[in-house]
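Minutes, project check-in
Item: structure for the 81-residue chain
Input as provided by the requester:
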Amino acid sequence: YLSVSLSLSLSPCISLSESRRILLPVVLHHIHLHLRQQKELLICSGILSSIFSIIKTSSLDTPVQEEVEMMVESLLDVLLQ
């Protein structure tokens, strides 16, 4: 599933805010699972980096506060371990 998340993070569909609202929770769930198990950390960080870059670029056109909050709420606990 992580390879699918990587593909999604690099695809044009994640650039669209409507698609991102649907896909982001699924991608974050898989990243959370891998981070909790300390598996494939480089791939996880690459996916998160891609998503943050896309969100930053999107922030010029649309509000992204909800998406950033979703990422923080979804991953903060596992990142602070």
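Outcome recorded: The chain has one domain: 2-79.
No further action items on this chain.
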